[in-house]
Write a structure and sequence with these properties.
The protein is built from 6 helices and no strands. The chain is mainly α.
Amino acid sequence: MTRCGALLDLSPEGSKMRRNQFASVAFILLLVFALGTELADAQRGRGGGRRGGAPAALEEATLLEEFDKIVDLIWTDQEEDTWGDIDDDATEDKQAFITMFWESRDPTPGTESNEFREVWMQRVAYTQ
C-alpha cells in the first residue's frame, strides 16, 4: 500500500498504525519542547531563584561554610588539599578560591552566567 493509501486506510489495522505514528510524533515534539525550554532557561540564567544560580536558601555565608560539602563530588584532590590549607579565618582567600573554582568549570567563559555552577547548585538545592 502506498503512503497515501495508508493514510486513507480505514481498516482497524490502519487506524492503529496512524494512532501509533501520532503518539510517536507527539512524544518527540513534547520532548523537544521540554529540552528547549530547559536550555533556554539555563541560557537566560534562570534556575536557582537568584542570578548566578545560587538558590535563595543557600546564602553566601552558608556557601562559604559548606563549600567543601557542596563540591565534594566534583573537586579534584589538589583542589581539596588547597582548600584545606586555607585558614578558616581567611574569608577573602576562601572567596577567591571559590571564584577560581567555578570559573575553571564555566563552559562559556566571558558570559555573565556560569551554567555549570547554576545546574550544580540547583541539584544541591534539590537534595536539601
